[in-house]
Structures are given as C-alpha cells and as structure tokens.
Amino acid sequence: MSRPPLPPFTAETAAQKARLAEDAWNSRDPERVSLAYTEDSIWRNRAEFVSGRSEIVGFLKRKWARELDYRLIKEVWTWNDNRIAVRFAYEWHDDSGHWFRSYGNENWEFDEAGLMRRRVASINDLPIAESERKYHWPLGRRPDDHPGLSELGL
Questions:
Q1: Residue 10 carries which DSSP code?
Q2: β-pairing, 116-128 with 99-110?
Q3: What number of other Cβ atoms are within 10 A of residue 140's Cβ?
Q4: Would you give the DSSP letter of residue 66?
Q5: CA spacing 20 to 30 A to 149: which of 22, 53, 78, 104?
Q6: What is the C-alpha separation between 1 and 41, in angstroms, rounded?
Q7: The dihedral of CA 13, 16, 22, 27: what is its sign?
Q8: What is the pLDDT of residue 5?
Q9: Rounded to an integer, what distance in angstroms lies between the CA atom of residue 127 and that of residue 136?
Q10: Percent above pLDDT 90 for the chain
Q11: Cα(143)–Cα(67) distance, rounded to whole angstroms?
C-alpha cells in the first residue's frame, strides 16, 4: 500500500502530507486515520506509548470519546528527506462543557511507501472560555478558506 506524497519531501509535498493528516484527524474516524501508519508504527503521544495500528485505533477511540467537538489545524515546521516536523493546535471540550486549546509539535518519520512509521507528539492543554474559540467550522475537514495557525496568530 502506498500513501502519496512519498519521500523525499519538498516544501510542497510536506505541506500536502500535513494537510492530508489534518483532514484525516478531523474526520475523527480511527480506522481511516490508522491507515496512514505502518502496521508496526510506534507513537509517543504525551506520556502514552502506542505500537501498531490496532493500538492506534484504540487510542483514537478513547481520545475522541473524551475530546468532544475536536477541530485541528496542522502546519509544517520543517522537513528533510523522509521526515516532517509539524506544529498544531486543536480545540475541544470535555463532557462538562469546558473548552481547551491543545498545542503541540509532532515529529514524523515515513517509510518509502509514504506510511508513517514513527510519530512523536508533545502536547499541552490550555483551558479557554468558549468565547475564545477560533475554530468554528462544521465538524469535519477545515474549509480551504479558513485561516491556518500563522494567520490566527497561534
């Protein structure tokens, strides 16, 4: 199975890869998201370590059961050969209606077929008032005309 764009990455293909990842995560479909990763992909997400697609699916199901109305924006920080570093911010609320903006960085490493074999994520949560939200598009893919992180001052 191949997941273009393939390494080695350019500025354009790294941005495409980041947008495809953003779109998949905004679907909140764990099975769909897991297909971008190798069967034996290794993750560090905050203090949790995940290995393989089945664990990725389980992790994402737990995540999106807890992080409601999740909306994400990713932006490429840098790239080289088969690696991409992105920064991101997402907004969500808990089951009590408390809103958060979670900021972070991810380091990605891809195999020759364009599947991610390693994902290292560092994330911090900032409580925000509902009035401070910046992401208001309908759940799902961020519209093409919606500002990105830099345009939003994030």
A1: -
A2: antiparallel
A3: 11
A4: H
A5: 53
A6: 14
A7: negative
A8: 98
A9: 17
A10: 99
A11: 21
